[in-house]
Amino acid sequence: MFDNFVAEHRQVDDASIFVRHAGEGPPVLLLHGHPRTSATWHRVAPQLVRRGFTVVCPDLRGYGRSRGPAPTADHSAHSKRAVANDLVAVMRSLGHERFALAGHDRGSYVAFRLALDHPDAVSRVAFLDGVPLTEHLARISVQFATQWWHWFFFAQPDIPERVINADPDSWYHGDPLSMGQENYDEWRQATRNPAVVRAMLEDYRAGLTVDRQAEEADRAAGARLRCPALILWSLRDDLEDLYGDPVAPWARWADDVHGHGIDSGHHMAEEAPDALAASLGDFFSG
Fold this sequence. Notes:
Blueprint (H helix, E strand, L loop, with lengths): L5 E7 L2 E8 L4 E5 L13 H6 L3 E5 L21 H14 L5 E6 L1 H12 L4 E7 L4 H6 L3 H6 L2 H5 L4 H8 L1 H4 L4 H4 L1 H11 L2 H15 L1 H12 L7 E6 L4 H5 L3 H4 L6 E6 L5 H4 L1 H13 L1
Parallel strand pairs: 3-4, 3-5, 5-6, 6-7, 7-8
Antiparallel strand pairs: 1-2, 2-4
């Protein structure tokens, strides 16, 4: 897994970020979602390297082997802004001032915040299986609340930690055959670590508080993405069922935006790596 990639920790301000990177050429930053680690990209990243990109795959703050500060009462220590700042610092430490960017699931919210806060750093951005947090919350329905109830459960204080850590193997479900054994082993080790579980929950708590407030402020100020945006979604997941065309919510935030579905379940980097690598490679090539 990740043959010929460098694996190391990069210290950035108040966080230590575990990162894998390899390749020569235009830099690409790939951000995983919940509850995965950077290993979720193990079938996609090498394909992008072969297409001539430098590929960087970090564990987000608190996920996997990355560590940040202790949680704060307002959840700002695990805000998307804090995580985005980590990643800009990591990329600069690797010599990349400007780069293309893709984020899946929770990683898509980090990618969105990074592109808004650091527009000069992002040449192109791809959002996978996600729409902005405020767009989700503005469309809450019985169907959304039923299918995405975990957002509001994770936001509760203390209770989710007790439930999940009592039996993490029953809470989190993974298949070593579909994920790849090494990816599965890394993911399982992370989800059995109470510190990682706490950080992942803080990600969701921040999402409904400080992250939502930041997006609302951007919306009121008329902020828009300045770079081209690609929207990809899993055809065998529920985003299209919830909203129809997943590109439509992004059109409120970007002028240059288009997208299409990928024939996959939610974890498209593991289930449909060839199709995903082809779509990202074509988009990043411009």
